[in-house]
Amino acid sequence: MTSTSTLPKPVKAKTSDPQSRGQWWRFSGFVVFTFVILIPIFATVALALRPEQSSGEEGTATIANFVYVLSETLTLKWLGNSILVALGSVVIAVAVSAPAGYVLSRGRSKLVSGYALALFVIQALPIIVLVVPLFMLFAPLRLIDNLVGIMIIYVGSTMSVTTWMMAAYFDTIPITLEEAAWIDGCSLFGGFVRVILRNSLPGVLSAAIFAFLQAWNDYLIAIVFLRSDPTLTLQVGLQTFFQQNSTEWGPVMAISVIMILPPVIIFATLNRYFSVGGIGGSLAGR
Amino acid sequence: MTPTLTTARPARGRVGLAGRGAATPPPARSRISANAVILLLMALPSLLVILLINVYPLIYAANQSVRMGSLIDAGPFVGADNFAEVLTAESFWQAAGFTVIFSVVGVFGSWVVGFAIALMLRTRIPGANTFKVLLLMPWVIPVVSSAMAWNWLIATPSSPLPMMFESLGLGRPLFLADPVLAMITVCLFKVWVSFPFMMLMMSSALAGVDTNVYEAGKMDGAGRWQQLTQLTLPMIARPIYISWILMAIFCVNDFTTVYLLTGGGPVGSTNTLLVLAYRTVFQDMRTGPGVAIAFLMTFVLVVISVVLYRQIRKSSLQ
Amino acid sequence: MENSTPSNGFTRRGFLGFAGLAASIPLLASCAPNASGTVDSDTVLKFWDMPWGAPEYSDTAARIVTDYSKSGMPSWSYQTIQWNNFYQTFSSAIASNTGPAVSGGGGFQAFQFAELGKIAYADNLVETMKSSGSYDDFLPGTIDSMKTADGYVAMPWALDLRVFWYKQSLLEKAGADVPTDWDSLVTTGKALRKIGASGFGIAGGSGYNHAPQAIITLMLNNNGGLFDKDGNLDCVTERNIEAIEFTKQLVAENIIDPGMISYSMDNLVSQWGDDKVGFGIHEPGLALQLGDTTGDVSVASPLTGPHGDTGTLMFVNNIMMYTETPSQEASESFLEYYLDNMITLWEDDAVSRIPVRQSIVDLPIFQGNTHFVKIVKEYQPIAKSYAYPASAGFAGLAAVDGGMQLWQFAQTVLEGKTDAKKSLEDLSSELAKVL
User: Which class for C55: exposed (0-12), middle (13-18), buried (19 or more C-beta within 10 A)?
Assistant: First the structure.
């Protein structure tokens, strides 16, 4: 059931080997620790599956809350909006930061170092200093209460990190591979596409996952820029639903579970591509 | 053609036109610098984004911070009045103080936990990868969800945790209502949310460590603790510092965890500068002072990040 | 390594082209023509409303709106706007000419926008309604509460009041009576405390206005108030200080539970449901929120203050017309229709608010709700707005209602460490900044 890819190659286990002797203790420790850490999540799921107090059913887990929120409320619309925005942000962010990461990785000049510094500083800016002017910029452009508007902002706010991630991954691809492509008559950009991009699936996925997470989990930008009910993303929709139906924990937690599922599924399946070590490496190496 | 770079470490010495050694052989270097235009074009979309989403708002915000306006118009010029008002307000310093506490506890708390887990995951444990994925969850799930769950767990006398404490005879802790306890709760929440990120960063840093040094260390009689402090820590010092810096920036810029759990209360004890700025702009509708607070934050963060960035780069050239 | 051209033909030009297209979408969106000038039955005007209740409310209201049809008049569309940052929603929409022609909103929003010159005064509509007889159907004082020196800024459609609620079963268990004045509130509170319940349910969490509204209700109960007759800030008065000291007494005796300083509305309502709150101030919909149909949770009669006064806080929910409309005539015609037909909301049980029209109060379904009937009978006559004792509303009240000052003030009082007079002085200086 387990993949030991993150562990050092084990020597043949002997009972006197200290590693294997302690392992069941460590295992139980981890079980307990993980259980405690995940209590809030268990609570969310349990409350979502609990039948309504007024319905009279006791003790049985039910998906009635899910059925209710998906059919009687705007949850499905909100879910669609969140997916649209997240995927859109991911696509644009990757499209923008891949070539930028290439420049960061292969470029050599004061300008490039300046660019690297700019990227670092930008992601340190508090979002509130950007939100107010952007609000005033977007208002006449009809980008308020508009999913495209927040998509643009998400791209802006994740771009630094995704560019670093790309750059870090590109750093691991030897430039000799591109040289061979150039000798064969490729242009610089052609080399980028054919050599770098082709071999960078893990790096691109890493950046994509990060961008998805940022867009999916954002709250502040969504509450400032989204207004009318049908335009909301799940984050804001859940909060407003919660405020209007304050004692209905079942449906509220059901929406919460729906909101949790996509990032969890993505991480559960793709986590081996996700590497944040690149951020550290690329910061250090510039 | 033999591959030249096999490790995951990026090539060193990227600054300046004098590249080093095998990383940038002359033909490649000149090829790249000859194509400066193409490189510029490739970076162009991101430069446009930076200009639109970051530079322009920053300039506009600077303008707004010296005016008393609203969200729909910048308003009349008031010079440094907003800054004077903000810097003399008790609420500002209270928020600044908690921002520092929150960041310090958030950074070191999450680092200690994340590092410990990363170390343990290196040893042989059945299901290590599954644990790793499960332990990522606090960071992966939206804070809206987790804040709601935490609130349900601790807010009222009928909530599970207070009831548990009462049944154990420990009285009823006012997790969100007592100012000091609320600060602790918020910090704990932040550590819970952030340790997975640290765990990931430390895991990948540790993965790059050459295990042979441990054999040598063991032969010299080094115990486990000494191995950790004398061998491991120095080897991954730089990724550690970087993770601290990143996490500190994340903490200072974190709106959602504080806002959704306590809203900055009670009596402003858990207010951070970001929440204060938000409320000043969007609740009090006083854009000038709110942006002034945001600008002060920006200034401090930019200065710190530039200084630290230069530090990291300097140390990496050695 | 391959030497052949990629089969998808991906080139630099294609890539830039895509990026350019993506960038131009928002710019294109802004080029849509504005509705202006002529208006006919093909135009659709916008009515923005707030989520005043459960989803049924919005559905029913939307239906009323789309059912409107008058020859030669444009039709209307209905949209729900969220409370979060609602003032910014409206102001940015109006500033960019994308706002509604008619809308609901916050209690003092119309006063704010009127000061900015964005409100179309309703004087003409009031005259029309006087001749049609609808005017007399409105409960006394409700339309007048919308009057300013320059005219009526909006038309009322519902009332929101703060009333005293009690839980019968819990009081019986504690052996306490329903309080009738401040002293008996303390007695009942102490009895409730003995059984582990609170005698004054209040939600003091950051950002929630429930606690300050409850405290102001007490101030109004004692004939105090935030302003003076001329509309100037006047918080530090004898009556107000008494009310604050009374609140502090409740805190000191644990009649207000120490956890309440962090409660959200949800926390508070769930505590009512969990038998942890036996008495408190709340909006008219408490029984409905708790799903209590047994009458266990009931409205108490207004408390008498230490000097024999009664009084409570109210908000007049209203609908306003904007100058930013293609046709003022169309706006007025629609608003008149809506005010005459909103009775459907109560007939269909889609809203749990106090109406402003006698004809709605007389509805059998409304009369069947004992809580509401009692509220109309006993609370509406003594209800006052934030402006009390000033008679007219003004724009500054919106800043009071929406800003941080009120709930910060409430938290200070609930914390119990500040002297009553000082906390009122602080409130006054903070409010002065936003007024």
Answer: middle
Closest by CA position to C207, among listed B294, A221, B273, B268: B268
Same domain (yes/no): C58, C205: no
Say if B180 falls within a structural domain: yes
B176/C95 CB distance under 8 A: no
Residue C258 sits in a domain of what CATH number? 3.40.190.10
Q: Within this chain, do residues C80 and C52 fall inside the same structural domain, yes or no?
A: yes
Does residue C207 belong to the interface with chain A, where contact is any CB pair within 8 Å?
no
With respect to residue C410, please indicate whether it lies within any of the assigned structural domains: yes
CB contact under 8 A, C1 and A181: yes
- Give yes or no for a contact between A113 and A286, defined as CB atoms under 8 angstroms apart: yes
Using one digit for the tens of pLDDT, what is the confidence trace for C272-298?
Answer: 999 999 999 998 988 888 888 888 999
Q: What is the CATH number of the domain that holds B153?
A: 1.10.3720.10
Tell me the nearest-neighbour CA distance from B225 into chain A, angstroms.
15
Give residue-wise pLDDT tens across range C50-107: 988 777 888 899 999 999 988 888 889 998 888 777 887 888 788 777 889 999 998 8
Mean pLDDT of all residues in chain A?
82
Is residue A93 over pLDDT 90? yes
**Domain span including residue C52:** 12-160+315-368
Residue B127 lies in a domain: yes
pTM beyond cutoff 0.95? no
What domain range includes position B148? 91-317
Tokens coding C254? 């644990």
Q: How many CB atoms lie within 10 A of CB B251?
A: 23
C287 part of a folded domain = no
Shared domain for C51 and C126, answered yes or no, is yes
Q: What percent of chain A has pLDDT over 90?
A: 23
Number of domains chain C is built from: 2
Ranges in chain C, pLDDT < 50: 1-37
Asked if C84's CB is within 8 angstroms of A148's CB, the reply is: no
Interface check C297 vs A, CB under 8 A: no
CB pair distance less than 8 Å for C270 and A227 = no
User: Smallest Cβ distance to B298: which of A39, A102, A126?
Assistant: A126
CA A138/CA A65 separation, integer angstroms: 37
In a domain, B83, yes or no: no
Residues C173 and C215 in one domain: yes
- Give how many domains chain B has, as a whole number: 1
In the stretch 56-75 of chain A, residues with CB closer than 8 A to chain B read none
C143 closest CA partner among C163, C162, C129: C129
> How far is it, in rounded angstroms, from Cα C381 to Cα C314?
11
How far is Cα A267 from Cα A213, in angstroms, rounded to an integer?
A: 10
Measure the CA–CA gap between A72 and A134, rounded to whole angstroms. Answer: 34
Asked if residue A258 lies in contact with residue B123, where contact means CB atoms within 8 angstroms, the answer is no
Residue C184 sits in the same domain as residue C101? no
DSSP string of B32-62?
A: HHHTHHHHHHHHHHHHHHIIIIIIHHHHHHH
Examine residue B164 and state whether it is found in any structural domain, yes or no: yes
CA-to-CA distance for A284 and C151, rounded, in angstroms?
67
User: Which region, left, alpha or beta, applies to residue B265 given φ > 0 means left and ψ of -120 to 50 means alpha?
Assistant: beta
What contacts B254, CB < 8 A, 6 or more positions away? B102, B106, B190, B272, B274
Residue C6 maps to a domain: no
CB-based contact C276:C198 (threshold 8 Å): yes
- Domain-located, residue C288: no
Chain B residue whose CA is closest to A10? B124
| In contact, A249 and A49? CB cutoff 8 Å | no
Label residue B251 by pLDDT band (50, 70, 90): very high
Complex ipTM: 0.84
Nearest chain B alpha carbon to C95: B72
In angstroms, what separates the C-alpha of C386 from chain B's closest C-alpha? 17
Q: Does the pLDDT of residue B155 top 50, yes or no?
A: yes
| Same domain as C272, residue C420 | yes
